[in-house]
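4.2 Preliminary Data

To establish feasibility before requesting continued support, the project team ran the inverse folding procedure on a target of 295 residues. The structure was first converted into the token representation described in Section 3, and no sequence information of any kind was made available to the design step. The complete token record follows.
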């Protein structure tokens, strides 16, 4: 909670609005399809994702009910101008087309996209599903915006000193005109420097929903090696334009582990000391990563 609080304060200081991330279960549409992740991608296999068996399927994307709309309003910053009505059926069909045959200047993946796969329920593998939902809402009145969230995500991982099946993701998006990759790198350096983590390294990477994409590494003195602490990039047109966002509105997106930067900053060598049923109470009582009164 201490490091989570520190991250939240940094985001607020930099002008971000916190997203509501209360939905742990998502459909494949919001978790994968809307992010231009093909339905045959390995991330959608049983060995990587937890699927829900009861009920196994959810609803197609739709306008939120009264309670959901209230939650969205609380998570959004004040807007100027009139918001247009969002066409969820058109969004659904555009996502299908951009996967199957291409649209918005893309040739797509050229495979038979299946509705039943898109409606399968999963434990969310990233909070980017929430960011996607918020960006689609932004299309009602496109404008510069900054959103963030910090919450739990779930992946069918083998547990070791640096991996958990349930962990916290620090998610952020910046939407604006004229954004560049150099600006994203500069933002990441400033962001982590506020946490006392400097000298980051960046490596080109592949993500289905960002291009270009970068993995972010920080040096762990205890391990004496560079540890990946996050993934980032600029969202692809195949993700943004089906939402109804204008082509010249660019969006940075990044997902950072909460636990790994904590390990680097507080010299923790085993991620299982931070989260899970094996957390030592002695660690909780004494380590600066947990104690608010200690630096």
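Position-by-position output of the design step:
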């Amino acid at each position: 909670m201490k490091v989570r609080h520190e991250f939240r304060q940094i985001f607020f200081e930099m002008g971000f609005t916190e997203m509501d991330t209360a939905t742990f279960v998502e459909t494949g549409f919001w978790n994968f399809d809307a992010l231009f992740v093909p339905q045959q991608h390995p991330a959608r296999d049983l060995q990587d994702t937890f699927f829900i068996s009861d009920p196994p399927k959810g609803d197609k994307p739709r306008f939120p009910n009264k309670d959901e709309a209230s939650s969205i309003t609380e998570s959004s910053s004040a807007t100027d101008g009139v918001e247009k009505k969002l066409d969820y059926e058109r969004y659904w069909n555009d996502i299908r087309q951009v996967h199957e045959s291409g649209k918005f200047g893309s040739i797509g993946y050229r495979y038979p996209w299946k509705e039943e796969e898109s409606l399968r329920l999963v434990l969310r593998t990233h909070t980017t599903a929430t960011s996607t939902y918020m960006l689609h809402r932004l299309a009602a009145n496109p404008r510069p915006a900054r959103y963030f969230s910090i919450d739990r995500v779930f992946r069918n991982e083998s547990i070791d000193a640096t991996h958990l099946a349930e962990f916290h993701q620090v998610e952020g998006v910046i939407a604006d005109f004229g954004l560049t990759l150099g600006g994203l790198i500069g933002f990441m350096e400033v962001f982590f420097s506020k946490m006392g983590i400097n000298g980051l390294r960046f490596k080109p990477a592949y993500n289905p929903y960002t291009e270009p994409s970068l993995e972010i590494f920080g040096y762990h003195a205890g391990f004496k090696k560079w540890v990946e602490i996050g993934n980032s990039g600029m969202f692809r047109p195949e993700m943004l334009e089906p939402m109804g966002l204008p082509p010249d509105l660019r969006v940075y997106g990044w997902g950072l582990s909460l636990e790994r930067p904590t390990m680097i900053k507080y010299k923790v060598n085993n991620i299982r000391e931070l989260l899970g049923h094996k957390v030592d109470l002695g660690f909780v009582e004494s380590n600066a990563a947990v104690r608010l009164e200690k630096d």
